[in-house]
Amino acid sequence: MTSLARSVLALTGLRKRFGATLALDGVTLSVGPGEVLAITGPSGAGKTTLCRVVAGLETPDEGSVRYGSEPMDDVAPGRRRVAFMFESYALYPHLSVRDNALSPLRAPGGGIPRERHRAIVDETLGLLEIAHLADRLPGALSGGQKQRAALARALVQQPRALLLDEPISHLDAKLRHKLRGAIRQRLMTRESPSIWSTPDGLEALSVGDRVAVIDRGRIEQIGAPEDIWLRPATMTVARLIGDPPMSVLSGELEGEGDALVFAREGLRLPLPAGLAADAARATSRRVSLGLRAGALSLAAEDAAGAARGEIYSHEPFGKHEIITFSVAGGAQIKIKTRTAARVRIGEAAGLICPPDALALFDTETGRALP
Ligand code: ATP
Fold first, then answer.
1. 86 lines ligand 1 (CB under 6 A)
2. Does the ipTM surpass 0.90?
3. In the chain, N or C: fewer CB atoms in 10 Å?
4. Which residues belong to any copy of the ABC transporter domain (predicted)?
């Protein structure tokens, strides 16, 4: 490999429009050598377009892609030495799984001595639990097996940057859990920057050294997984990330100083001191309150400090359950509890909101306060 193998992949001010759709709206980010940047956002957010621009398959209207000190903008896709695992797999139909994975190694400039190719490929097929399918053609594979064949073809390479677009989305839940750890281990031993795109916010938190949350072509937040989880920078991030994500309700600030109250139809919550101090600096009284499902708890209807409402629905998931609590006026709040609470739909109940369950946002800008 050249010395460029340990360079930073830097995207600056990328903008890409398809007709009326702004697929990328000023994306600036960088990925360090050996770093995995997980990029997550809803369908249509711009994840694939971002990968395609880095790979050179899409030309941005504005902005640039640099690898180390080298601008990539005028470098043809085939010469960028970027390994791209497509969401659509793009396997060669006439080649076996093994030969598909061998193909980029055999291409000129692959950089790995020929005698090592077979061992690298077979080890990777083993890692992805498809060694027994090595001689099959793609047409004889299930969706999840095809996806792993495409992933193997990307992982065997030593590219300048590795782009994985939804690499494990078609695997069953058990295999997805198992393989995401194994693949992440593999990526951490590399020198090249990696981008891993996924619509699953929790997958992003578990595989990324850092996580970028994208929505409508804009990066909403980029940071360490625990920052994204604990301190969502915008209402969009709060609504996307979590298990389940925060419930975000719009309302008004009432009162002054330390005695600020979040108020909306059916709900009046005195704000804890820290949040009240942040809220006091808000420029607008129109705020939204984020309520973190895992930090909320149910109580009796008349319990001290509890907000009143009723049980709207109850979903048991084995070791935890999700309760939807509704307040007068219809706003709904998700609660995640471990206990097998005996709840009845329609029953009156109280909601306890400890300070760490709450986050405030400016409704107009969507940004967290302060
Ligand atoms: P998904 O998770 O569904 O794959 P995504 O986050 O990868 O979504 P993109 O595929 O990047 O999203 O698409 C971003 C936006 O750009 C979408 O609104 C999409 O419809 C639009 N778009 C992407 N490619 C094209 C194209 N070639 N022509 C027109 N519109 C496009």
1. no
2. yes
3. C
4. 9-241
